Amino acid sequence: MRPPLHIFCDLEGVLVPEMWPHVAARLGIPALAATTREHPDYAGLVAARIATLRAHGITLAALCGAVADVTPYDGAVAFVAALRRHGPVTLVTDSFDPMNTVLIAAFEVDHVLCHRFVRDDRGYIGHCAYWNGLAGKQLCLAGIDGDTMAIGDAFNDLPLLRAATYSVLFRPSSETRRAGQNLPVATTYADAINAFANQRRARYSLSGKF
Questions:
Q1: Where are the chain's structural domains?
Q2: DSSP 32
Q3: What is the full DSSP assignment across 134-171?
Q4: Which CATH class is domain 5-17+72-115+132-204?
Q5: Whole-angstrom Cα distance, residue 123 to residue 121?
Q6: Which stretches of the chain drop beneath a pLDDT of 50?
Q7: What's the rounded Cα separation, in Å, for the pair 113 and 83?
Q8: pTM of the entire predicted model
Q9: What pLDDT digit, counting tens, does each position of 152-202 carry?
Q10: Are 87 and 7 in contact (CB under 8 A)?
Q11: Which one of 20, 42, 102, 105 is least enclosed by Cβ atoms within 10 Å?
């Protein structure tokens, strides 16, 4: 008998567009467009974003308003539903509550692991509360009994993808793809499902569908 399957899915770049390029365009602040698809130093990237927002007088409420019209990719909700038929799905994302609240609500998932922006008394982002202390997304696998499956797209997803039983790198940048080396790559949700199915069949010498 195969062990139970626990599924971990990134949010930005996999299920929804990257929020920060959208914020940069909406607010007219190009410096906010950088993401972890290009920059592995996540802590430095977040600190630079907060400093830039404060320098331009952008409050946390205004930041949330700038992403209010971002919607999931076509097929993303159905993709999560398809994954959930095989086991509990956890969204594990380096995005921040409350910036991500509306987008996360679009998906039916079992758990959410994300960071949180804490507002100061002037309405700006005062500091960040990190669910994993910035020790890596792979911490979500701690204590899991059974096989694990992970899908992500960026540098910050690589430790999780390497630690999971089955992994797919989804539409990565060229920099992330090079850093991901031999990780399977998918460009569509159907490709991702097939990649997971092939890995699981190979592990258990199975035939048939995922």
A1: 5-17+72-115+132-204
A2: G
A3: TS-GGGGGTT--SEEEEEE-SGGGHHHHHHSSEEEEES
A4: alpha beta
A5: 6
A6: none
A7: 17
A8: 0.92
A9: 998 889 999 999 999 999 999 888 899 988 899 999 999 999 999 999 888
A10: yes
A11: 105
